[in-house]
Design a protein that fits this description.
Elements (H helix, E strand, L loop, with lengths): L5 H7 L4 H27 L4 H8 L2 E6 L2 E6 H26 L6 H26 L16 H9 L7 H25 L6 H19 L5 H18 L5 H9 L8 H16 L11 H17 L2 H25 L9 H5 L2 H27 L11 H10 L4 H11 L4 H29 L2
Antiparallel strand pairs: 1-2
């Protein structure tokens, strides 16, 4: 019997695109947690001043009289995060095309639960902050951090059914779509018409590429880069360009998958017809056959699926960690933390992410099931839906992102918002995990 090393066994395992997605989100969640801790340590250490100064360092791009000048913090939030939003766009497109949201019967429960999980937190926040300077932050508790939430669920292993994981993924995808719309519609200060028109023209070019059957990535990247710049200049948040660009990426293969099997069999039969020299290895013809099979594989794949697969790792290892490092570092004065946490902004976010998400996700799901509008995910219980509702209260990445937009001119309110986000996300994540681990049937 031949023994295989662990990594050799991994090569033999065939994972579905959904399994790749879950693995990528789990990896992102673990790295995100680590970088958040690093950011908090740096912000509360003797290096705090250098840490803050670094992210406020400006990076300039000059071409003649034209200049683009932003801080490193700004480049991360408006530049690198556009790639994160591009991934979100691809995930939304996949879920609507072939995923859980493509079947309206299966999608009803997560869609209704997601809508409830956005509306209730916003209403609770507004009820607490009505008439105050922090009223504009109502969009902050609406968001769910998909990476953290899925990581917590995956850690539970066989204690939760695959259908429950799928429910949370579909819910989080709808939640992301809602967050994108809120950012685009409500957190835009001033719109400049000409750049917005040029951004729209860029999108039409991307759509034309799709319609003409262009599957090369480079043309989409070049035009997408211009669209990002025009969106940046328009006043609409530049990261929205990432989501819009994703919608134009082809999600249909260049050639029919049915013909691949026959062509691959012919090529593999030819490959097997040549003897393999133990010393020399494959001959030139066999190498050419493998390259041809590789080309055929790329042709039955889609640019959307390929990009989603290829970009998950850079986003998990570079974009999200940098975002956490730049945004999660808050200097905590433990003597005044009690005062900060009871500020209307902090309280609104905590109540929204915990109470609002539970009322919205669990309450609406319970009502939909009782009214027989939707059905419970297979192998799960209402008690587990209650635990998942708490995991939906982990707002983190998107909540911090919205907080920076909502209170762009008020560092004090941003600080209060981040304290609320961290406190609520920590409690919601721990409570949801422990409930599913020890209490839920």
């Amino acid at each position: 019997m031949k023994l295989y090393a662990p990594w050799e066994k991994a090569f033999k395992k065939v994972a579905t695109p959904f399994e790749h997605f879950i693995h990528a989100q789990t990896t992102t969640g673990i790295i995100l947690m680590f970088m958040t801790i690093v950011a908090l340590i740096l912000a509360n250490s003797p290096l705090a001043e250098s840490y803050a100064h670094f992210f406020h360092t400006k990076i300039d791009f000059d071409v003649g009289t034209w200049e683009l000048s932003h801080t490193i913090h700004h480049w991360i939030n408006d530049g690198l995060m556009a790639i994160f939003f591009f991934i979100i766009g691809l995930e939304i497109k996949r879920e609507i095309s072939v995923g859980e949201l493509s079947n309206i019967k299966a999608a009803t429960l997560p869609i209704l639960a997601a809508i409830g999980g956005m509306v209730f937190p916003a209403l609770i926040y507004l009820s607490i902050n009505s008439g105050t300077a922090g009223v504009n932050g109502w969009g902050i508790p609406m968001a769910t951090d998909i990476a953290f939430a899925i990581s917590a669920l995956v850690l539970l292993g066989k204690r939760v059914s695959p259908a429950l994981v799928t429910f949370l993924v579909a819910l989080a995808i709808v939640d992301d779509l809602g967050a994108v719309l809120v950012i685009a519609l409500f957190y835009t200060e001033q719109i400049h018409t000409l750049p917005l028109i040029l951004a729209g023209g860029s999108f039409l070019i991307l759509v034309a590429f799709n319609r003409f059957g262009i599957h090369m990535i480079l043309p989409y990247f070049i035009v997408g880069l211009f669209m990002w710049f025009f969106m940046l200049e328009s006043g609409v948040h530049a990261t929205i360009a990432g989501v819009i660009a994703a919608l134009a990426i082809p999600s249909k293969p260049r050639r029919a998958p049915a013909s691949f099997r026959q062509d691959a069999k012919i090529l593999l039969d030819e490959y097997d017809s040549y003897p393999i020299d133990e010393k020399e290895g494959m001959n030139e013809r066999q190498k050419a056959i493998l390259l041809k099979i590789e080309d055929n594989i790329r042709e039955i794949g889609t640019p959307a699926a390929r990009l989603e697969h290829d970009l998950h790792l850079p986003v998990a290892l570079v974009v999200i960690p940098l975002f956490a490092l730049a945004n999660a570092g808050i200097a905590i004065d433990f003597s005044s933390i009690g005062t900060t946490i009871i500020e209307p902004v902090s309280m609104g976010i905590i109540a929204g992410l915990i109470l609002g998400k539970v009322l919205g996700i669990f309450g609406v799901a319970w009502l939909a099931i009782k009214l027989k509008i939707a059905t419970l995910p297979q192998g799960s219980s209402m008690s587990q839906i209650f635990g998942v509702a708490f995991l939906g209260g982990i707002g983190f990445t998107m909540s911090i992102f919205v907080a920076d937009l909502a209170f762009i001119h008020s560092p004090e309110l941003i600080f209060q918002a981040k304290v609320g986000i961290l406190a609520a996300s920590l409690f919601a994540g721990l409570f949801g995990f422990l409930w599913l681990r020890y209490i839920a049937k």
